Protein backbone atom coordinates (compact mmCIF):
# COMPACT_ATOMS: atom_id res chain seq x y z
CA UNK A 1 0.00 0.00 0.00
CA UNK A 2 1.27 3.51 -0.75
CA UNK A 3 2.43 5.48 2.25
CA UNK A 4 0.01 8.01 3.69
CA UNK A 5 1.29 11.52 2.94
CA UNK A 6 2.48 13.47 5.98
CA UNK A 7 -0.03 15.98 7.31
CA UNK A 8 0.56 18.81 7.41
CA UNK A 9 3.16 18.54 4.61
CA UNK A 10 6.77 19.57 5.24
CA UNK A 11 6.23 22.40 2.76
CA UNK A 12 3.52 23.98 4.93
CA UNK A 13 4.32 27.67 5.57
CA UNK A 14 4.98 28.76 9.17
CA UNK A 15 3.79 32.07 10.51
CA UNK A 16 4.42 33.98 13.73
CA UNK A 17 1.29 35.48 15.29
CA UNK A 18 1.74 38.28 17.84
CA UNK A 19 -1.47 37.47 19.74
CA UNK A 20 -2.02 34.31 21.84
CA UNK A 21 -3.31 31.43 19.73
CA UNK A 22 -6.37 29.40 20.73
CA UNK A 23 -8.55 26.99 18.79
CA UNK A 24 -10.99 28.78 16.49
CA UNK A 25 -10.83 31.46 13.82
CA UNK A 26 -7.90 33.84 13.51
CA UNK A 27 -7.53 36.70 11.04
CA UNK A 28 -4.26 37.36 9.22
CA UNK A 29 -3.64 40.67 7.47
CA UNK A 30 -0.85 42.99 6.34
CA UNK A 31 2.51 41.65 5.17
CA UNK A 32 1.75 38.19 6.55
CA UNK A 33 -1.42 37.91 4.49
CA UNK A 34 0.47 39.14 1.44
CA UNK A 35 3.11 36.47 2.01
CA UNK A 36 0.56 33.67 2.29
CA UNK A 37 -1.62 34.76 -0.64
CA UNK A 38 0.81 36.37 -3.12
CA UNK A 39 4.05 34.49 -2.39
CA UNK A 40 2.88 31.06 -1.18
CA UNK A 41 -0.32 31.09 -3.31
CA UNK A 42 -2.31 29.75 -0.39
CA UNK A 43 -5.80 28.51 -1.27
CA UNK A 44 -8.98 27.63 0.63
CA UNK A 45 -8.37 24.48 2.69
CA UNK A 46 -4.57 24.80 2.73
CA UNK A 47 -2.70 24.25 6.03
CA UNK A 48 -0.59 26.89 7.77
CA UNK A 49 1.56 26.33 10.85
CA UNK A 50 1.25 29.05 13.48
CA UNK A 51 3.21 29.96 16.61
CA UNK A 52 3.02 32.85 19.06
CA UNK A 53 6.31 32.42 20.92
CA UNK A 54 4.78 30.99 24.09
CA UNK A 55 2.11 28.34 23.47
CA UNK A 56 3.76 26.05 20.92
CA UNK A 57 2.93 25.35 17.29
CA UNK A 58 -0.61 25.14 15.94
CA UNK A 59 -2.29 24.01 12.75
CA UNK A 60 -4.53 26.46 10.93
CA UNK A 61 -6.62 25.75 7.85
CA UNK A 62 -7.43 28.52 5.39
CA UNK A 63 -11.13 29.25 5.87
CA UNK A 64 -11.65 32.29 3.69
CA UNK A 65 -9.61 34.73 1.59
CA UNK A 66 -10.21 38.43 1.08
CA UNK A 67 -8.37 40.97 -1.02
CA UNK A 68 -5.91 41.88 1.72
CA UNK A 69 -6.55 39.39 4.50
CA UNK A 70 -7.51 35.81 5.17
CA UNK A 71 -9.06 33.79 7.97
CA UNK A 72 -7.61 30.59 9.38
CA UNK A 73 -9.42 27.99 11.44
CA UNK A 74 -7.03 26.83 14.19
CA UNK A 75 -7.81 23.15 14.65
CA UNK A 76 -5.10 21.56 16.80
CA UNK A 77 -1.80 22.00 18.58
CA UNK A 78 1.09 20.32 16.74
CA UNK A 79 3.88 20.87 19.29
CA UNK A 80 4.36 22.27 22.75
CA UNK A 81 6.62 25.29 23.14
CA UNK A 82 10.27 24.27 23.18
CA UNK A 83 12.62 24.56 26.15
CA UNK A 84 15.29 27.01 25.01
CA UNK A 85 18.92 26.58 26.17
CA UNK A 86 19.78 29.20 28.80
CA UNK A 87 22.27 31.23 26.77
CA UNK A 88 22.46 35.01 26.39
CA UNK A 89 24.39 36.59 23.53
CA UNK A 90 25.83 39.94 24.56
CA UNK A 91 27.29 41.58 21.48
CA UNK A 92 28.37 45.07 20.51
CA UNK A 93 26.11 46.49 17.78
CA UNK A 94 27.48 46.24 14.26
CA UNK A 95 26.74 48.05 11.04
CA UNK A 96 23.41 47.38 9.35
CA UNK A 97 23.55 44.13 7.46
CA UNK A 98 26.01 42.49 9.83
CA UNK A 99 23.88 43.08 12.92
CA UNK A 100 20.87 41.78 10.99
CA UNK A 101 22.82 38.62 10.14
CA UNK A 102 23.97 38.26 13.75
CA UNK A 103 20.49 38.31 15.31
CA UNK A 104 19.16 36.02 12.58
CA UNK A 105 21.84 33.40 13.28
CA UNK A 106 21.47 33.81 17.05
CA UNK A 107 17.82 32.84 16.63
CA UNK A 108 18.60 29.90 14.36
CA UNK A 109 21.31 28.59 16.69
CA UNK A 110 19.01 28.62 19.72
CA UNK A 111 20.00 31.67 21.79
CA UNK A 112 17.47 32.64 24.47
CA UNK A 113 18.31 36.34 24.75
CA UNK A 114 20.16 38.88 22.61
CA UNK A 115 21.63 41.86 24.46
CA UNK A 116 23.28 44.70 22.48
CA UNK A 117 26.23 45.99 24.51
CA UNK A 118 27.71 49.46 24.00
CA UNK A 119 31.49 49.66 24.27
CA UNK A 120 34.00 52.44 23.65
CA UNK A 121 34.76 51.25 20.13
CA UNK A 122 31.15 50.51 19.18
CA UNK A 123 30.52 52.16 15.81
CA UNK A 124 26.71 52.01 16.06
CA UNK A 125 24.93 53.54 19.04
CA UNK A 126 21.38 53.52 17.66
CA UNK A 127 19.57 50.34 16.73
CA UNK A 128 16.28 49.76 14.99
CA UNK A 129 15.02 47.13 17.41
CA UNK A 130 11.80 46.61 15.46
CA UNK A 131 13.82 45.71 12.37
CA UNK A 132 15.99 43.32 14.36
CA UNK A 133 12.92 41.65 15.89
CA UNK A 134 11.48 41.23 12.39
CA UNK A 135 14.67 39.45 11.32
CA UNK A 136 14.44 37.14 14.33
CA UNK A 137 10.80 36.36 13.61
CA UNK A 138 11.61 35.49 10.01
CA UNK A 139 14.47 33.26 11.18
CA UNK A 140 12.19 31.52 13.70
CA UNK A 141 9.57 30.92 11.01
CA UNK A 142 12.17 29.30 8.79
CA UNK A 143 14.09 27.21 11.34
CA UNK A 144 11.13 25.80 13.28
CA UNK A 145 11.56 27.63 16.58
CA UNK A 146 8.44 27.90 18.69
CA UNK A 147 9.93 30.36 21.23
CA UNK A 148 11.38 33.67 20.07
CA UNK A 149 14.57 35.04 21.60
CA UNK A 150 14.08 38.15 23.68
CA UNK A 151 15.84 41.31 22.52
CA UNK A 152 16.82 43.90 25.13
CA UNK A 153 17.51 47.59 24.81
CA UNK A 154 21.22 48.43 24.36
CA UNK A 155 23.17 48.50 27.60
CA UNK A 156 26.59 49.97 28.37
CA UNK A 157 29.32 47.48 29.23
CA UNK A 158 29.89 48.70 32.84
CA UNK A 159 26.16 48.39 33.55
CA UNK A 160 26.05 44.91 32.04
CA UNK A 161 28.89 43.77 34.31
CA UNK A 162 27.45 45.53 37.37
CA UNK A 163 24.09 43.77 37.03
CA UNK A 164 25.35 40.40 35.82
CA UNK A 165 23.66 37.49 37.72
CA UNK A 166 25.84 35.64 40.20
CA UNK A 167 24.80 32.22 38.87
CA UNK A 168 25.63 32.85 35.22
CA UNK A 169 29.07 32.46 33.62
CA UNK A 170 30.25 35.11 31.16
CA UNK A 171 32.49 33.80 28.39
CA UNK A 172 34.14 36.65 26.54
CA UNK A 173 36.12 36.51 23.34
CA UNK A 174 39.47 37.88 24.44
CA UNK A 175 41.72 39.02 21.60
CA UNK A 176 44.66 38.94 24.02
CA UNK A 177 44.19 35.20 24.57
CA UNK A 178 42.39 32.86 26.91
CA UNK A 179 41.40 29.24 27.28
CA UNK A 180 40.35 27.47 24.10
CA UNK A 181 36.62 28.10 23.89
CA UNK A 182 35.77 24.40 23.85
CA UNK A 183 37.74 23.75 27.06
CA UNK A 184 36.35 26.83 28.83
CA UNK A 185 32.75 25.93 28.10
CA UNK A 186 33.14 22.27 28.96
CA UNK A 187 34.62 23.22 32.31
CA UNK A 188 31.79 25.59 33.24
CA UNK A 189 28.36 24.15 32.39
CA UNK A 190 25.11 25.84 33.30
CA UNK A 191 23.48 29.18 32.49
CA UNK A 192 25.85 31.36 30.52
CA UNK A 193 26.39 34.48 28.47
CA UNK A 194 28.76 35.09 25.60
CA UNK A 195 30.29 38.55 25.29
CA UNK A 196 31.54 39.66 21.88
CA UNK A 197 33.25 43.01 21.35
CA UNK A 198 32.91 45.48 18.48
CA UNK A 199 34.95 45.82 15.31
CA UNK A 200 38.37 46.62 16.70
CA UNK A 201 37.72 44.73 19.92
CA UNK A 202 37.60 45.88 23.54
CA UNK A 203 40.07 48.51 24.61
CA UNK A 204 42.57 47.73 27.38
CA UNK A 205 40.55 49.30 30.20
CA UNK A 206 37.43 47.41 29.16
CA UNK A 207 39.33 44.16 28.97
CA UNK A 208 40.68 44.75 32.49
CA UNK A 209 37.15 45.50 33.73
CA UNK A 210 35.79 42.30 32.22
CA UNK A 211 38.63 40.16 33.52
CA UNK A 212 38.09 41.50 37.04
CA UNK A 213 34.50 40.26 37.07
CA UNK A 214 34.14 37.01 39.08
CA UNK A 215 31.87 35.39 36.46
CA UNK A 216 34.04 36.25 33.44
CA UNK A 217 36.19 33.69 31.62
CA UNK A 218 38.39 34.77 28.73
CA UNK A 219 38.36 32.40 25.79
CA UNK A 220 40.14 32.05 22.47
CA UNK A 221 38.29 31.35 19.23
CA UNK A 222 41.30 30.05 17.37
CA UNK A 223 44.37 31.41 15.60
CA UNK A 224 42.60 33.58 13.03
CA UNK A 225 41.14 37.06 13.41
CA UNK A 226 37.37 36.74 13.15
CA UNK A 227 34.83 39.40 12.32
CA UNK A 228 32.63 40.18 15.29
CA UNK A 229 29.57 38.52 13.75
CA UNK A 230 31.58 35.41 12.82
CA UNK A 231 32.99 35.24 16.35
CA UNK A 232 29.49 35.41 17.82
CA UNK A 233 28.17 32.59 15.64
CA UNK A 234 31.24 30.43 16.31
CA UNK A 235 31.06 30.92 20.09
CA UNK A 236 27.34 30.16 20.22
CA UNK A 237 27.83 27.00 18.14
CA UNK A 238 30.55 25.78 20.52
CA UNK A 239 28.37 26.41 23.57
CA UNK A 240 25.40 24.65 21.99
CA UNK A 241 27.63 21.65 21.30
CA UNK A 242 29.02 21.47 24.84
CA UNK A 243 26.18 22.70 27.08
CA UNK A 244 23.15 23.39 24.88
CA UNK A 245 20.72 21.26 22.92
CA UNK A 246 23.13 20.02 20.24
CA UNK A 247 24.44 17.26 22.52
Short description:
The protein has 247 residues and is an alpha/beta fold. 30% of the residues lie in helices and 27% in strands. The chain has 2 domains: 14-79, Beta Barrel (Ribosomal Protein L25, Chain P), CATH 2.40.240; 87-242, Alpha/beta knot, CATH 3.40.1280.10.
Question: Could you please describe the fold and organization of this structure?
Answer:
With about 250 residues, the chain is an alpha/beta fold. The longest helix has 15 residues, at about 130-145. α2 links the parallel β6 (about 85-90) and β7. It folds into two domains: about 15-80, Hypothetical PUA domain-like, domain 1 (Ribosomal Protein L25, Chain P, Beta Barrel); about 85-240, Alpha/beta knot (3-Layer(aba) Sandwich). It starts with 13 loop residues before the first strand and ends in a 5-residue tail after the last helix. The radius of gyration is 21 Å and the shape is elongated. The model has no long low-confidence stretch (mean pLDDT about 95). It is built from seven helices and 13 strands. α2 (about 100-110) crosses α3 (about 130-145), α2 (about 100-110) packs parallel to α7 (about 230-240) and α5 (about 180-185) crosses α7.
Amino acid sequence: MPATPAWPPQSTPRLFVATPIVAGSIRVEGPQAHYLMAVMRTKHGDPVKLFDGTSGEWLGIVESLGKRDLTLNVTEKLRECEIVPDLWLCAAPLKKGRIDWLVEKACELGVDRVMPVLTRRTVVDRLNLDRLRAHMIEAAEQCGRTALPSLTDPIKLPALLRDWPDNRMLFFADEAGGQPALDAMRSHPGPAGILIGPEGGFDDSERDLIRAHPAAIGMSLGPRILRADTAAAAAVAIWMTTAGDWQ
